[in-house]
Amino acid sequence: MSVSSSCIFCSQIISNNTSTKLLHTDDKVVAFQDINPSAFRHYLVIPVEHIATVKDLQPRTQDYSLVSHMLDVGQMLLTRDAPNSTRYRFGFHQPPFNSVNHLHLHCLALPYSPRWKRLKYSSLGPLGGFIEARKLLERLKP
């Protein structure tokens, strides 16, 4: 397993050197609440292994399986914690729009709060921006 000492997610969240409450842990991923939420519920699901960004993922079984598992965990958490929500979003920021260089799935139970934050979760076409988890899975299909 690869970790990065300069990565806040590796050095604090995964190594459990923080007061952040973990919502889910297993041998592949860790999930927790975003410290600056953009929606009614806003969780992050990150791989235990350090993977910098979506650009480091390849169309292969291993990467497809990881992203699929991240999505399953995010859906399970939001279904559990925001069962009355009628709209959810699941996706990743793409460089240069990612805030932390450790792959992380944004899991949002809408509405956005405040409403302007929805702009952070928009696709910018060829410039990148936000990519829906399902669209990334299509790209990663082996």
Question: What's the SSE pattern?
Answer: HEEEHEEEH
Total DSSP E strands: 6
Strand content: 15-25%
What overall geometry do the principal axes of the alpha carbons give?
A: globular
Low-confidence stretches: none
The radius of gyration is: 14 Å
Distance between the termini: 22 Å
Count of separate DSSP helical elements: 3
Structural class: alpha+beta
Q: Please summarize the sheet with the most strands.
A: 6 strands, antiparallel
What is the H level of CATH, i.e. the homologous superfamily? HIT-like
Mean pLDDT: 90
Give me the CATH fold name.
HIT family, subunit A
CATH architecture: 2-Layer Sandwich
**What is the CATH class designation?**
Alpha Beta
Biggest β-sheet: strands ordered side by side in the sheet: 1-2-3-5-4-6
Overall tally of structural domains: 1
Helix content range of the residues, please? Answer: 25-40%
Question: How does this model look, in words?
Answer:
This protein has 142 residues and is an alpha+beta fold. The chain has helices at residues 8-14, 61-81, 133-140, and strands at residues 22-25, 29-33, 39-47, 88-93, 105-112, 130-132. It has one domain: HIT-like (HIT family, subunit A). It is built from three helices and six strands, in the order H-E-E-E-H-E-E-E-H. It has a six-stranded antiparallel sheet, with helices on both faces. Helix 2 packs antiparallel against helix 3 (133-140). It is globular.
